[in-house]
Structure formats: structure tokens, C-alpha cells
Amino acid sequence: MIKSLLYKEWIKTRWFLLAIAIAGAIIEIYMFLRVGRSIRLVGAEHIWDVVVNRDQFLFYHIKYFPLAAGIVLGLSQFIPEVIDKRIKLTFHLPLPEKTITSVMTGYGFTVLLALFLIQYVSLLAGIRSLFAFEITVTAALTLLPWFVAGICAYLACVFVCVEPSWRMRIPNFLIGVAIIRTLFISGFPGAYIKMSLFMIAITVMFTLFLWLSVYRLKIGRQ
Amino acid sequence: MDTVIECRNLTHYYGNRCIYENLNFSIPQGRIVGLLGKNGTGKTTTINILNGYLQPRSGECLMLGYRAGMLPPTVKQKIALLMEGHVQYSFMNIGQIEKFYSAFYPKWDKAPFYELMSKLKIAPSQRISKMSCGQRSQVALGIVLAQNSDLLILDDFSMGLDPGYRRLFVDYLSEYARSQNKTVFVTSHIIQDMERLIDDCLILDYGKLLLQQSVQQFLSEFKRYRLVSSQEPDWRDMPVVHPEKIRDKIEFYSTSDKKTLSACLSRQNINNQLVEESLTLEEAFIGLTGKY
Amino acid sequence: MKTIKAILIVITTLIFAWVLPWIYDLSTDTPQNYPFTYYSSVAETFGMRKNIDGETVLKDDRGNEYSEAQFDSILPMLYYRQLARDGHLPDSLHGVDISQRLLSNESFVFRYRPRDKNSPSIPLYTLIESMPRRVDLEMPGDMFRLDDEIQFIKPETNTVDWDKSSYFNEMLNRRGFVWPANIVAGNPTTRKSYDEGYLITDNNHNLYHFKMVNSRPYLQNIELCEDVIPVWLEVTEYRSRNYYGFVISQDGRLFVIHTGGYRVEEIPVPSFNPQTDNLLIMGNLFYWNIQVTTANKRTIYAVCSNSYDRVNSITFDAPDSSDNVKKGLFPFEISFTSSNDAYVYPRVQFFGFYYLALSLLLALGYIVFTKRANRAIDYFSLILIALTGFIGVASVLTVGDLKHV
Fold first, then answer.
1. Rounded distance, CA C330 to CA C356, Å?
2. Which position among B91, B118, B136, C107 has the lowest Cβ density within 10 Å, counted as fewest Cβ atoms?
3. Are residues C261 and C119 in the same domain?
4. Is the pLDDT of residue B1 over 60?
């Protein structure tokens, strides 16, 4: 049954996942083409100097991509469920609601995490091939909140979409925006080094919050 | 006979608007029961309460002996649901949706599903969202039938269907349910064709349940009477519903027999040449609930 | 579910504690500037430029007001270019022959902000040849790291130059450098008139001057008093070549390193807090204007640039920034950034208990309202409102109370 539930999620999301994967690859390739060109034009030493001494981050084009990817995946999974209250069909399936929600959200979370990991690691591998270890570490720290924002945006989408009433959907949306906004406050390289616990905390929080929406849907709040 | 659905003292309000108060009904095993009512009388509300998507202000519903909203998965396997508007996973095609559902139901029988599908002129890879309303209704019905469950709940299945599909739906469902001794609970605000399907009817009016009995009994007792008279009878003394007088033509409905009614009219010195008319379910429904 | 709802309500309250004060500031912020102050080597008093209601007022510490031209002339160390153009630059001052060139050479500005220290940085450094063959400084074609040894990395290939690294390592080890380096300070740019490399402290807080001369490492230990633990180093590379740099110690004392034999001199200004206070030194031929800005005041010390004697000081209290409306509305404020560092993390600033008056009133209002609406009082919301006031109400209004999940 769980396999079948995953099959449904796969049918809903497969094209969007492909789009996210392709878009991510295009952005990464574009960024490396740009940096590669800069290195050819002005020399690697100057680029390193700009990165190290002028606090420039060269891979900023990907900044809002994970956020968009998280939202796209969340919407692709849950908009079809919410339209015509299709989620009632889903919750009528002979599985406990908790299992259904966990499988659906777990699917999106895992797939998104896997995609992000591939993108994150390949990006860092690319950066490491051009730059010193120290620069790569700072890049990892700079990129991390953006990817965490993507994961949180996905969870926030569920939190907002599954919520049955518009009266609460709007506050949920605003709360999601506010919390995710904290991950985009500063673009200073490495600024989020002290935020690792915070980032874990908000991810856990969104995971908790979406259960509230599921519960409210289940008991028929309108 | 076992009771499959039981609702006790169901009361629900949307805000201050009373949907119904102290609604009681039960549905025995093996019957096809129609919950009939005009729009807004609480048919879908009842379905939502039964499925646990709505908590009634008070009262409780039991389905197969379990409290609505707290059905264990094994019980859910025995209940097939057709949502209002034939909502299904429209991002799938018929092969995908059959494959999807088959995993959930141990008694899954794909034969009736594909049999129904073969009647539709659709391509195997065609997504449900690209189908016509009628075709979608058949897909939803096929899914419900293939589940081979003990109880089928169909919420307003006739909505948006053209007559051909409605007839197809009703005939197929009726044939299926009777041959397999299934319990079916349907709601509808379109009464045409219902006579062919349902055994018992529950008629909801705003705020209350008007009637709960078998269609046969209802139609044999509930009649329309006509008479011609320039004087309007004093209806307060008479067991009639929805009397209407247009010029000198008088029309009313009643469950009382012609003799009793004639006697009432005689007492008022009114022409008691009553014409008794048997009714179709639709006519009886209108007679009972009124035209407005 | 109640627990999750309670978390949601609390988080919403915290979001309001972040967003609402921010919106409040956005709509009420006004500029709050200290007057510009500079010690006059002519009038021997502080000249001040104030902005009062959009009008610039030029005066001194004694209350005399000046015209613009007069103000230029009492501050020749600052306005020498203007004076020279107007032909009013004196030939000598305090018995010293002066020229625009001399004044320009002897003037410097050193600014320290806590943010400089409290910022994430990439621990890679550029070691420029201090004795270049040609006139201009040139980038060396590599960068170095200093963790358990020195390693030079070539950006063009992203590989370590092992020969150069081991050559430098040997020398640093011979001089007793204790790895890893603690503070590494330099000005890795070729846009300066000369290069003095780096000031470095090792893991034992020993201070070194490190540079590359004729492709060879140069490492010189600089003696500091034992109680001086540097937290910030600055290589000055000023045109006058009088100093190698500045040292700020953990306890907020300021030292200057002279080029003559690495003599270290403490500047006689009271110690400040390097974590929160800003330091600005505007030096000239005769005096250093040392400006220390804390959260609630700014003091400018005039220090003789030869003897380092403190000759005068003036203190300004911060323009009144205590906002009673804000304190009455909000119990606390959450912000994620600060002007004192470049990190992002939540910081809570309490405003005291002024808000309690409003919050108790709101709590009372909540009780009255729920009674009127014939509903049971949600004690969680009540306590939240009593504790946080305005933002608690906003939160309960937004996401509802705990009674209704």
C-alpha cells in the first residue's frame, strides 16, 4: 500500500522533479561558465583575491533556486490534493492518516533532500576544483541556508496547502514567509555559521506545524 | 439484518445556521438507501460527518460499528467512497489509477472497472483530467465497484451528468449492488432515475428528516389528489401537504386514503369528487418537500 | 496537537517580536548623529560641526561660533588643502615649518569597528613582495594559509607550492612560531605605497611582524608586556612610515608599534570594549583625535602625536534614543543582525517592564472579551498576553488560542 501511495506521489511530481533537476543543472553550469570566464579574463589570483579579501560570493545565482524548487515540489504534490478536496479521497484510503501524511511528506522531503544533496555536493565539488579548501568551506556555509530554505519552503507549502480554512491558511503562509525570510537576511559569505541549530530547529518546527494542518483537516475545521 | 450505518441525535450548525437537529437514521445491510433533499439541506454535510471530515456539534455516527472518523484501516477497506463531483486523481490515466487503487483493497476486482472503461471512448493513456464529465463519472464509479467493498457511499453522483450517463450509472450500480448484496448509501438532489436504484429513501428538508421508509411503501401511501372547487377547504383540519389552489383547480398531497380525505371535505361541504393519482418518486419528492 | 499549537502561538509571538519593532523603527527612525569634532592645533580646543535643524553650525568647545573660512583656519590639519588653495595655509605652526605635502604625509585615519573583528573571513592571505624589483607592488601569484604550517597555494592551478611552503616553514619554525596562528592582519592590496606584510600572533599570543623580502621570509618578534593579549591588529602602511601598526588588546587598550626598533607605546586613552565600541583615530602632525564611541556616548581624546600625552577630551552623550512608546509597546525585540558583527543569529533585547501596564490592560480586555462572547477563557493565551502584551495579542488574533486547535 505504501508503495502504491509513493506511486501516486511519483506520478504527480515526476515532471516537476525533472524540471527542478534540469533547472538546477542549468544554473550550476551557468555559474561555472561565468566563473570560468572570469578566471580566464582576469586570472585566478584576482578572482581568489576578490573572494577572500572583498567578501564576494560568486555563486549567488542559485540563491533562490532551492526555495523555488521546494515550493514547486510542495505545490505539485499538494495542489492536486487540495483542489476539489481530493485529499479526502486520500485520507479515505485504508491506511492511518498519520501513515498517509508521513509517506506523502516523507516522499517529498526525501526526494527534495536527495536532489539538493546532489546539487549541493556537485556545486561544492566544482568550487573545490577551482578554489582552496577554505573558500569551499565558506561557500558551503553560504549556500547552506539557501538549501535549508528550500526544504523549509517545501514543508511550509504542506503546512499552508493542507490547512482546510482560508482563515488559517493566510496566517500560516505569513508565518512561513517570515521564518524562511530569516534565511535570506544576509548574503555575507559565512554569515550563517552560528545558525546551524536554528536551521535544524525551523525545519523540525515546520514538520510539526504541518501536522496541525493535517489534524485540522481531519477533524473538519472550516 | 445488521445495521451498517447508524446516526444518533446528529445535530450540526454552520455558524448560527442550523443544518439539522437530532437527526436519527440507520441503514440496514443489503439495502440501497438514498438520502434525498434539495440543495443545502445537509446531504454532503452528512457524508462528511460519516467520513469523519466534519465533527457534528453533537450526536454520533457509526459505520460498520465504528465511530465515524475513527475507522481502522481494515474497516475503511470495506467502505468505498464516491466523492461529490466524481472527484478522482485526475492526474492519472485509467491504467495508473487502477494500479494505484488495487494495492489498497484485498478484494480488488478489476473486471467491472475495465468493463465500464471499455464502454467509454477513451485512450488508455488519456489522463482523467482530459475526460468529459460523464467519462470521469464512469471512472469514479469503476473504482468504487472494483473495490468490492461491503458499503458504497456515493455523494451526489448524478450531478453534472447527462441523462445517458446517469442512466448508465444507475443501471450498472443497481445491477451490481443487488447481485452482490451490497449496501449502498447515495445522496442526490436529482430524483429522476432514483426510483430505479434505491430501496429506501431518507428525505431531508431544511433542519429535519421528513421521511424514512422504503420507496415502495412511500409511493403506495403518498398520493396526489385533485379536485375542482371554487371554495378553498380549511386545510388545518386535513392531513395534507402542500395544498395549492389555482383558480378553481385544487391540488394536494397526502398519505391518507381517499375515503378519509373525502370525509374531511364533505364535513366542510366541499365537492368531494377527488381524483387520486399515483406518483413517481420525483413527483412524490416534490410533493413532500414543496416546489420552493 | 495542543503542544504543537502552543509552539505555533509562541513562534508567532516571536515573529511579531521581530517584525513589529522592525516596522516601528522603519516608520519612526530619525537620524541621530554626533557632531563632527576635531581638535584644533591652533585654538587648542575642539572644533565642532553640528547640524541643528538642517543648518550647519560651526563652533568650538568654548562656545565661539565660526564662519566656514574661520573654521577652516582653526583646523589647518584637517582643511590644509582648502587653506592652501585659498592661500591661507600658514608657513609654520608651533615652530614647525609646514607644507601641504608634509601635512598630507603625516595625516592618517585608523578606524576600528567591532564588525571588522566579528565577521566571518576566509583564512587565506596574500603575501606581497615588500621589496619589489619594480616601483609598483605586484600580486605574488599565490596565497598562504597558516594553520599547522604555512602553505602557499597557487590559484592558477589550485595546488600547494610545496617548495616555497617548506622554505618559509623552516624559517617560521626556527623562530619558535607556535602553530596555528591566532590573528593574521595585513592589507593584501597592491594599491598602497609600500608593503609591510603582516602582523601575526601565534597560538601563545606572541606578536610577530611577518613579510616577504626579496622572496625570503622575514619574521620579527615584537615584545609586548606580558599582560597584553591582542585581539585586533592593524598594519598601517601610512605614508609617514612612522608606525608598523596598531594593537588592540583584549582588555581594550590601544598600542602603537613604531618603526624605530619595534618600540611599542600604549596610547593613554581609557580602555574600551573591542566587542561593542568603535574606535576612530584621525592623526596629524601634532595631535591624534581618538574617538571612542560606545552605545550611549562618544568621547574624543586629543593626544599629542609625539609624546602621547593626553591634552584634552570631550564627551557627547548619545542623542536621546530611549523611545518610550516602543518600550511601552514591546517587552523585547528580536533581531538577527547587529551593526557590531556580520553574523546572522537571533538576538533578544529586553526593554524592561514598561510594557506591563499595557499588557495587563490587554489581558483584562481579553478576559472581558471572551466573557462577552460567552467563551471559556484560554489560560495559555491569557498568560501569553499578560507576559508579552501587544505582540501576544497580535499572535492570538493571528493564529487563534489554544482552546481551538
1. 9
2. B118
3. yes
4. no
Give residue B190's pLDDT band: very low, low, confident or very high (50, 70, 90): confident
Residue type, C281: I
Residue B97 sits in the same domain as residue B121: yes
Q: With an 8 Å Cβ cutoff, are A222 and B54 in contact?
A: yes
Split at pLDDT 50, 70, 90, the class of C67 is very high
pLDDT digit string, tens, across residues C358-395: 999 999 999 999 899 888 889 999 999 999 988 999 99
DSSP-H helix ranges across chain B: 43-51, 73-76, 94-102, 110-119, 133-146, 163-180, 194-197, 215-221, 258-267, 281-289
Distance from CA of A195 to the nearest CA of B (A): 40
Whether A212 contacts chain C with CB within 8 A = yes
Whether C205 and C235 share a structural domain? yes
Q: Which chains touch C (3 or more CB pairs under 8 A)?
A: A
**What's the complex ipTM?**
0.93
Is the same domain home to B32 and B123?
A: yes
Helix (H) or strand (E) holding A202: helix A196-218
**Interchain contact, A89 vs B55, CB within 8 Å:** no
Structural domains of chain A, count? 1
Which chains are within 8 Å of A by 3+ CB pairs? B, C
Q: Do C144 and C150 touch, CB atoms closer than 8 A?
A: yes
Q: What range defines the domain where residue A141 resides?
A: 2-218
Residue C297 lies in a domain: no
CB contact under 8 A, A4 and B100: yes
pTM attached to this predicted model: 0.90
Does A220 contact B52 at a Cβ distance shorter than 8 Å? yes
Question: Of B199, B218, B237, which one is at a domain's C-terminal end?
Answer: B218
CA closest to A178 among chain C residues: C15
Quick one: average pLDDT of C266-295?
94
What is the sign of the dihedral through the CA atoms of B237, B240, B246 and B247?
A: negative
Share of chain B above pLDDT 70, in %: 99
Residues whose CB is less than 8 angstroms from the CB of residue A114 and which lie 6 or more positions away in sequence, other chains included:
none
Pick from A8, A12, A220: CB nearest B55: A220
The pLDDT tens digits for B202-226 are 988 888 888 888 999 999 989 898 8
Q: Which A positions 65-124 lie with beta carbon below 8 A of chain C?
A: none
Let me know whether B193 and B233 are in one domain.
no
- Within this chain, do residues B211 and B228 fall inside the same structural domain, yes or no? no
